[in-house]
Specification:
The protein is an alpha+beta fold and 629 residues long. The chain has 4 domains: 180 residues, Immunoglobulin-like (Sandwich), CATH 2.60.40; 93 residues, Zincin-like; 200 residues, Neutral Protease, domain 2 (Orthogonal Bundle), CATH 1.10.390.10; 74 residues, Roll (Pdz3 Domain). The chain has 16 helices and 29 strands. It has an 8-stranded mixed sheet. Strands 23, 24, 25, 26, 27 and 28 form a 6-stranded antiparallel sheet that branches. A 5-stranded mixed sheet has the order 17-18-19-21-20, covered by helices on one side. Strand 17 and strand 18 form a beta hairpin. The chain is globular and about 85 Å long. It starts with 11 loop residues before the first strand and ends in a 27-residue tail after the last helix. The N terminus is likely disordered. The structure holds zinc ion. Zinc ion binds next to helix 4 and helix 5.
């Protein structure tokens, strides 16, 4: 092929081929124009930004070879994810095979219906040349598999051909890693908001009503851009992509600077003719709103610890309560302010988050700052003891954001709010984010670990330093009832179930009823029952979940019940003194009187302006799971 200026390769060039969809294998050729004289080192990231867990993507590289113009070169493995090719004469060419069968938003997936990848799974980092621009040639799958695939990505085009296959460019490795790629036969729709073209792409069989999706997301996107840029109301990108994969049952999202990868149940998407909104759809809108907010908050405004990302190891910060917690606060708040949900539904969703935090004793032992720091080994790696030892920096972080917002609004009579702090963070740490051509992320400043209290003071005139220390570094209960009162909103707690309780969470395989968590200090814990115990009888009667519930409803707090359980297949007997049920279910009730503070907080959109989404329990509270990043 004749080479023209626009098709020139950069110092680092990748060619990615979905070569064997049935075997889930991408073939990748990497050319390094000027490899290191002592032998070029290459590495795959150990994690992907937005998902704070070491994932060892290199374990899916199944073959790797190196050569130069003279022939094959030796390539040695130095550690779990680093290789070194022998010194090359002229350009170094490395070819390798990546196994891609992870149906999540975090890695890579390939079969005969579509391909998806994050560069962190398929593009080796050329160590020492991370700041160099690179090209990516995306090749179509073999003609025997598909001839009609298209490409969806926000990587800048540099000579794309039919269907979007062809050459793309990234300013540096950091940019490359932040533009996931979808290829296949997807449905799509575009809409304009905040001065940018937005595209929704839906992969997977579904009869989604794309017009409805676009209509509902448009005002949410506009509201978010206006929050950060009230003057221009413009987004910091020209194009944004919602890369959505619809599956039978799935949930997840990962944020990127100009796009997001979303995974959802196909029944959560609206279908043509759907009149009402469903709980699943509300959850999907909340997820899309969450990841979109991240385009400003964590992808451009970043903790200093992420500038630049260290792809080799954990990047520790005590600030995920700001970056994930505030995002979790604003995701639903932007829906209600944009009129996509009613204020009543917003308060119901907020009450569910309060309950979620209140139910788990972990909030009394771990602070949100500690939870942020230890996300790598705790929040992302939950086990049977997590409810006792871990607090979610998503859920409690969003309540800290609420507490800050309410406190500032009340103290200033509604003249200042958390929005002002978001704008100041944006001006100081986000707006100068260097997108393509601007050089590596190192050009940018991140939010220092200790900077937030002073920044809040500067932005709002309100000093909350002692309160922040208690809410963020301590484990004291948040004074939400007191903070909500000036807004005409009453917070009350009641037991979820009036029956006395064993103080456990249960689950089970097949007919077995097992303890998944014994709450610390609870009745089961005091009696010696433990997570993993298989409950077989209570007071001499065989139990399953329903029978246990019925039995407990006939007992009183303080009664002793005899529980038989198997542990390591040994039958054991426990005398359990039942507890009164904990008042952990929150409800929020707004007064009927008009309240100016509340209007300022939840927005001025008239309640009947848009079809309100149906209320009810959210099918999958995102703050309860690690699926959304
Ligand atoms: Zn997030």
């Amino acid at each position: 092929m004749k080479r023209t200026a626009s098709r020139a390769t950069e110092p680092v060039a990748y060619r990615i081929v979905p070569a064997d969809p049935h075997g889930h294998l991408f073939e990748v050729d990497l050319t390094v124009a000027e490899p290191a004289a002592e032998g070029q080192r290459l590495a795959l990231p150990a994690w992907i930004p937005g998902s704070y867990m070491i994932r060892e993507f290199a374990r899916h590289i199944v073959r790797i070879e190196a050569r130069d113009g003279r022939g094959a070169l030796r390539i040695d493995k130095l550690d779990k994810h680093t290789w070194r090719a022998a010194p090359a004469r002229g350009p170094l060419r490395v070819s390798y095979t990546v196994y891609a069968w992870d149906l999540s938003v975090r890695a890579a997936h390939l079969d005969a219906t579509h391909g998806f990848f994050n560069a962190t799974s398929v593009c080796l980092r050329v160590i020492g040349q991370e700041a160099q621009p690179c090209t990516v040639d995306l090749e179509p799958p073999p003609a025997s598999v598909a001839r009609d695939w298209k490409v969806a990505t926000t990587l800048p085009e540099a000579g794309a051909r039919r269907g979007g296959f062809g050459r793309y460019r990234a300013a540096d490795y950091d940019a490359l890693a932040d533009h996931p790629v979808e290829m296949g036969r997807f449905a799509s729709i575009a809409f304009e908001a905040a001065g940018a073209t937005h595209e929704i792409v839906v992969t997977g069989r579904s009869d989604v009503d794309l017009e409805r999706l676009a209509r509902d997301l448009q005002p949410v996107c506009a509201a978010q851009a206006a929050l950060f840029e009230p003057r221009t109301k413009r987004a910091p990108f020209d194009r944004y992509l919602f890369l959505t994969t619809a599956v039978g049952d799935g949930y997840g999202g990962l944020e990127h600077r100009d796009s997001t990868a979303l995974l959802c149940g196909r029944n959560d998407l609206p279908w043509p003719g759907m009149q009402e909104s469903t709980d699943g759809y509300r959850t999907f809108l909340g997820l899309a709103s969450h990841e979109y907010f991240h385009a400003w908050h964590v992808k451009r405004i970043k903790p200093a610890a992420f500038v630049p990302y260290d792809f080799d190891r954990e990047a520790y910060t005590r600030l995920l309560w700001i970056f994930e917690g505030f995002t979790s606060y604003y995701d639903d708040l932007m829906l209600v302010r944009a009129g996509a949900i009613s204020r009543g539904d917003y308060l119901k969703a907020l009450a569910r988050t309060v309950s979620l935090v209140q139910r788990a004793p972990g909030r009394t032992v771990q602070s949100v700052a500690e939870s942020s720091f230890d996300a790598w080994i705790k929040y992302y790696r939950q086990d049977e003891n997590s409810p006792n030892s871990v607090v979610s920096y998503y859920a409690k972080g969003s309540l800290v954001a609420l507490a800050i917002d309410l406190a500032v609004r009340a103290k200033t009579g509604g003249r200042a709010s958390l929005d002002d702090a978001m704008r100041l963070m944006w001006e100081r740490y986000g707006r100068d984010f260097h997108a393509p051509g601007g050089g590596p992320g190192a050009m940018q400043r991140g939010l220092p670990e200790e900077a937030f209290p002073a920044l809040l003071r500067e932005a709002t005139g309100v000093a909350l330093d002692p309160a922040l220390a208690r809410w963020v570094d301590g484990t004291a209960e948040l004074p939400l009832a007191k903070l909500l009162a000036p807004f005409g909103v009453t917070l009350a707690f009641a037991p979820a179930d009036p029956a006395p309780t064993l103080g456990i969470r249960t689950g089970g395989r097949g007919a077995d009823l097992s303890i998944t968590t014994a709450y610390s200090g609870g009745a089961a814990h005091r009696a010696g029952l433990s997570a993993g115990d298989v409950l077989v009888a209570c007071d001499g009667l065989r139990i399953d979940e329903k029978a246990l519930k019925a039995l407990l409803s006939r007992r009183k707090p303080g009664d002793t019940v005899e529980v038989h359980a198997f542990r390591r297949d040994e039958l054991m007997r426990f005398a359990v003194v039942l507890d009164a049920p904990a008042p952990s279910e929150a409800s929020l009730t707004a007064s009927t009187a008009d309240n100016a503070l509340r209007r300022g907080w939840l927005g001025h959109a008239p309640a009947g302006a848009r079809p309100a989404l149906r209320s009810g329990a959210r099918a999958r509270p995102r703050t309860a799971r690690a699926g959304a990043a």
